[in-house]
Amino acid sequence: MRSISDPVLAIDIGGSKLSTGLVAADGTVLKKEIAAWDALDADSVMRTILAAARRMLEPGSGPTPAAVGVNIPGLADPERGIWIEAVFSGIRNVPIGTLLSEALGLPVRIDNDVNNCALAESRFGACRGTADFVWLTVSNGCGGAVFLDGHVYRGAFGSAGEFGHIRVEDEGGYRCGCGNDGCLEAQAAGPGLARRYREAGGARTDGRDATAREIAERARNGERLALEVYGREGYYLGKALAAVLNVLNPAKAVVGGGISAAFDLFEPEMVRTIERMTYREASRRVSVEKTGLGYDAALVGAATLALMRGNP
């Protein structure tokens, strides 16, 4: 696999924020910036992305990047550079690769955010030397990537790894943005976790729902309800991962995204659920781990795509 040795510009489009950064060829984040969205429509999102990218490219802001890598939240067409759809925002059919390349004067590569995280995990993280693994992100949404025989597996129509739309709740499940009820994304992503806590009587913060991070803090301080909510989180994640492990039999399953910061809170029930719901003898050697790339996994993922030439 050929690669480039200069730093690259990484753009991570998230559900609640935009992260941009300059990342070295060894995966080190040299500089980064986080910006909030003004609005979640295509025009506003593109304006925010371009403004942040241009700040990274200002003279004196750091080394000049050789290329740009972009994380797409949802469906992407990497060959044509098109952001096909994001369930959380309703954004569809944006030629983001062409728009950014023309505006910035740099080659641009795009792909689904979790596919990029899997690439980074393989190159810089916990899966170096691992040919077969899956990557699950849990943040404002839930997504997945399948890494088989040393490559991202895309499926017949380019959409393999949509773990967030595995149904994990049969009765009374929350409505997902995809139109179905009880999807992992609806139940286990940050908004679903916060909703479950509120509906169970959890305390609000300054008149608003507590965030997943605040609920995790309460759990670590011993609050029973917060602990129960994170236990249920582990059940949902374990149920989805069990289905994936039964089908693919990877060496590892890696969990990332913002909610992975609470891995210690949901891991016990997640592991118990996986053990109950998988063919144990076939899956007994599978390792389920937190990402080795920490909070910057997504940013490093976008950078890895830009750093690699050829088919990742």
**What is the strand arrangement across the widest sheet?**
3-2-1-4-8
CATH superfamily of the largest domain: ATPase, nucleotide binding domain
| Shape-level CATH architecture of the largest domain | 2-Layer Sandwich
- At the first level of CATH, the class of the largest domain is Alpha Beta
Strand content bin: 15-25%
Give the C-alpha Rg.
19 Å
The coarse overall form would be globular
Terminal-residue CA separation = 8 Å
Please count the helical segments: 10
Mean pLDDT: 92
Low-pLDDT segments, ≥5 res: none
Total count of domains: 2
Q: If you consult CATH, what is the topology of the largest domain?
A: Nucleotidyltransferase, domain 5
Helicity level, as a percent range? 25-40%
Short summary of the structure?
This protein is of the alpha/beta class and 312 residues long.
List the helices and strands and how they pair.
Elements: E1 8-13, E2 17-23, E3 29-36, H1 42-57, E4 68-72, E5 75-77, E6 82-85, E7 92-94, H2 96-104, E8 108-112, H3 113-124, E9 133-138, E10 142-148, E11 151-153, H4 184-188, H5 190-199, H6 212-220, H7 224-248, E12 252-256, H8 263-277, H9 280-283, E13 287-290, H10 297-307
Parallel strand pairs: 1-4, 4-8, 9-12, 12-13
Antiparallel strand pairs: 1-2, 2-3, 5-6, 6-7, 9-10, 10-11
Helix pairs in contact: 1-2, 3-10, 6-7, 7-8
Top keywords for this entry?
alpha/beta; Nucleotidyltransferase, domain 5; 2 domains; 5-stranded mixed sheet
